[in-house]
Specification:
- It is an enzyme of class 6 (ligase).
- Its EC number is 6.3.3.2.
- GO terms for molecular function: 5-formyltetrahydrofolate cyclo-ligase activity; ATP binding; metal ion binding.
- By secondary structure, the protein is α/β, with parallel strands linked by helices.
- The protein has one domain: Rossmann fold (3-Layer(aba) Sandwich).
- 32% of the residues lie in helices and 22% in strands.
- It has an eight-stranded mixed β-sheet with strand order 6-3-2-1-7-10-11-12. Strands 4-5 form a two-stranded antiparallel sheet. Strands 8-9 form a two-stranded antiparallel ribbon.
- The longest helix has 21 residues.
Length: 190
């Protein structure tokens, strides 16, 4: 079991680095990197039936181009939505046009619930074992536990600097990811 302090220190340092990196990008450079990310994800998204993604918050890289490509080839795209912020979110098919909790955008709660077989997961950092460092509230870990058991591929998505060499302390409830996608490429774990 890791000390929360270690994760908090690592979370703060890596989040600050991500924010600084994104601030250094021009709008054009950011758009080109997000296009390269979409290119890295094209084959994966095309081989899925339902692609779960996210609407980016703050300095998170946007998977929206990859999601649009998936939709263009007939895939269902879905986003996290909370009916109750105290319970795990579900993926709903539809665009994230409604304000949800925690500053996020989500589909209308009347949209159909779906089970993605490919999930693009936001993160603050990820290590070589696929251990993900998120915002620390456990929302993704709770939601992904069941989906991973059901066979969903979990792909962390981020800027290249978010793949760190330091091992992230892992707790029993942390759900390891299968791979990490960035504009630089796709790295599979285990």
């Amino acid at each position: 079991m890791s000390a929360p302090f270690e994760k908090d220190v690592l979370r703060r340092a890596t989040l600050d680095a991500r924010k600084a990196f994104v601030r250094s990008l021009s709008d054009g450079a950011k758009a080109r990197l997000e296009q390269k990310l979409a290119e890295r994800l094209t084959a994966l998204c095309a081989s899925a039936s339902v692609v779960g993604g996210y609407a980016p918050l703050g300095s998170e890289i946007s998977p929206q181009l990859a999601m649009e490509e998936a939709r263009a080839v007939g895939r269902i795209v879905a986003f996290p939505a909370f009916h109750d912020p105290g319970k795990p979110f579900r993926f709903l098919a539809g665009d994230p046009l409604s304000p949800g909790p925690f500053g996020m955008m989500q589909p209308k709660l009347s949209a159909p619930a779906v089970e993605p077989d490919l999930i693009l997961v936001p993160l603050i950092a990820i290590d070589k074992r696929g251990t993900r460092l998120g915002r620390g509230k456990g929302h993704y870990d709770r939601a992904l536990t069941r989906l991973r058991k059901g066979g969903a591929k979990l792909i962390g998505v981020g800027w290249p600097l978010q793949r760190i060499d330091v091992l992230i302390p892992s707790d029993p409830w942390d759900i390891p990811l299968h791979a990490f996608a960035s504009p630089d490429g796709l790295e599979w774990f285990r």
